[in-house]
Amino acid sequence: MTKLTLDITMSLDGFIAGHTPRAEQPLGDGGERLHEWMYGLEAFRKRHGQVGGTTNRDAEIIEESLAGTGAVIMGRGMFGGGDGPWDESWKGWWGDEPPFRQPVFVLTHHPREPLVMQGGTTFNFVTDGIGSALEQARSVAAGKNVAVGGGANVVQQYLRAGLLDELQVHVAPLLLGQGVRLFDHLGTDPTELEVIRVVESPAVTHLKYRPVR
Ligand SMILES: NC(=O)c1ccc[n+]([C@@H]2O[C@H](COP(=O)([O-])OP(=O)(O)OC[C@H]3O[C@@H](n4cnc5c(N)ncnc54)[C@H](OP(=O)(O)O)[C@@H]3O)[C@@H](O)[C@H]2O)c1
Question: 155 CA distance to ligand 1 centroid (A)?
């Protein structure tokens, strides 16, 4: 069985977005800084249809995750477009050619027909829960891993259900102070994690864990 993985950037004080994510600032106040470690990397730029960029250990780590992933699951908070029934003109934050380039499953309570975008991304909207999203993602992932892209709410559901096989947290050297906390609402029972890998760079620290079941 392929793995269900998580790849997400977090501030040292535990936030994956700043205060009040909104249309003009999807990552909330100050949250854009979280991903600064990626913007200049060739692996990131290529996915976003840009040329050039740096190759280093951080880029290798992005490449490794991208190469191993065949489908992505995200929450509606990450996809954006506000609450309630869909405004069908909203097609995500990423423009006509999103960087995923593979099937994406968006968890939502509001049904919507799939959105086929340029460059290989299809957004499928899943209203029957995290198990169904995982099953559907696995069925199209061509034998590769399924990655949970975020946000916090969806990550917490997969963690609580014991379905995540690996967590890779990229810790940005930043204290955001407030915002969307990643490891919240997980109950009071400890979750034991096995450390798989720690990679340091001046821009970010990559921590990879496996939940012990
Ligand atoms: N730092 C990073 O690397 C990173 C990565 C990803 C996201 N983010 C940020 O994280 C923030 C979003 O996180 P979030 O925790 O607020 O939201 P989220 O987890 O992306 O989405 C939560 C929403 O998804 C829908 N949903 C979730 N589970 C569902 C289920 N089981 N069944 C049906 N619908 C379900 C619900 O929306 P409806 O009921 O409205 O449909 C719910 O309110 C954004 O600011 C985003 O930019 C950061």
Answer: 8
